[in-house]
Amino acid sequence: MIKIKEKLQEEDKKHFLSEITSINFGRSSILALALLIVSFLLLITDYYNYKNGLWMAEHGYRYLFYCHLLLFSGILLLMPFLLLSRSQNPNHLRWSRAYVLLLSYLVTLDCSLTSISDQMINGEMTVYIMGIIIFAIINYSSPLSNFLLNFCASAAFLIGIKLVQTDLDILKSQ
Predict the structure, then answer these.
(1) How confident is the model at residue 126 (pLDDT cuts 50, 70, 90)?
(2) In this structure, is residue 13 part of a structural domain?
(3) pLDDT value at position 5?
(4) Number of separate domains in the chain
(5) Considering the chain, what is the average pLDDT of its residues?
(6) Taking the C-alpha atoms of 143, 132, 119 and 76 in order, what is their torsion angle to the nearest 10 degrees?
(7) Structural domain includes residue 99
(8) Of the candidates 80, 73, 131, 126, which has an alpha carbon nearest to the alpha carbon of residue 104?
(9) Domain that holds residue 136
(10) pTM for this predicted structure
(11) Who wins on pLDDT, 47 or 137?
């Protein structure tokens, strides 16, 4: 049996990490643009919900608006990272990694908060599940990074569900 214990050379490691960062950055940029457009459309929908009086009938719609506003404004605040990481700055890899990491945390935590708001309206948690699966698929990252991302999102979701879900049977099933 032949055991290969060859380590990657330092130059190969840097090139590999650079490629992973480039792939994650490209995918995250596309996702951020799509989410910016979708969250803008959802803010328009929230405005119509406000005009139709749904905010007064059910507080979950107001919280849903805040979640959409958080996502929209958070992505807008991350735009300078997008510009810095596209530049030919020697630190562009660091900016790209920061952009991918911040966007990942922003979106997964927003998915958790959106699902908590949805619990108040109709008892759904689809947005949370979709957000976790999407970031598990699109980003290549270390196991520790994935664990921390999912742990934060799951902790926020479980704490929020515990606070807003009044039906004990539904709470136990989730």
Answers:
(1) confident
(2) no
(3) 46
(4) 1
(5) 84
(6) 110
(7) yes
(8) 131
(9) 20-165
(10) 0.84
(11) 47
